[in-house]
Design a protein that fits this description.
Length: 151
């Protein structure tokens, strides 16, 4: 008997096998994406941290160096338009869809700051920084940099 076409059962078996392979492989690819986003966030926040410190060294009020105030648009409002220009691009959180800058908070005393990203679970904690420079309230997957401690 000369068979020139595949039966519907053979096609379904092949499709089922492909679906199972994709189902097994997808979580592994998602983990690789998350690792890449985490590395991207760490690198970008290190650059923004350096820009914040440069801003501090180049700006003063009444002879006292100052950090930018707490804001959700740190880069667009203070670092990008500053003279000298501290960053040439505005970096956005890789875990959040759209254009959301990294979170930035200055301690009440104005000596310590923290930059953080919501991390893989896309739900950040209520991060705070004390006047002693200690960061608290971040989730286990949140990524942060500070001139204090606790990241």
């Amino acid at each position: 008997m000369n068979k020139k076409s595949h039966t519907i059962i053979e096609i379904l078996v092949v499709l089922s096998a492909l679906i199972i392979i994709v189902w097994i492989a997808f979580p592994r690819f998602q983990a690789m994406w998350d690792q890449g986003y985490t590395a991207q966030a760490k690198a970008q926040m290190s650059m923004v941290k350096a820009a914040v410190v440069s801003y501090y060294l180049n700006h003063s009020q009444s002879g006292v160096h100052i950090f930018p105030p707490s804001t959700t648009t740190l880069q667009a409002t203070y670092l990008y338009p500053a003279t000298p220009q501290f960053i040439s691009n505005i970096f956005y959180q890789p875990f959040v869809p759209g254009s959301q800058e990294y979170n930035y908070l200055l301690s009440l005393g104005g000596k310590f700051f923290v930059l953080w990203s919501v991390g893989v679970n896309k739900a950040g904690g209520f991060v705070s920084i004390s006047d002693a420079g200690v960061v608290s309230g971040k989730d286990s997957d949140d990524i942060c940099v500070t001139n204090g401690s606790g990241c």
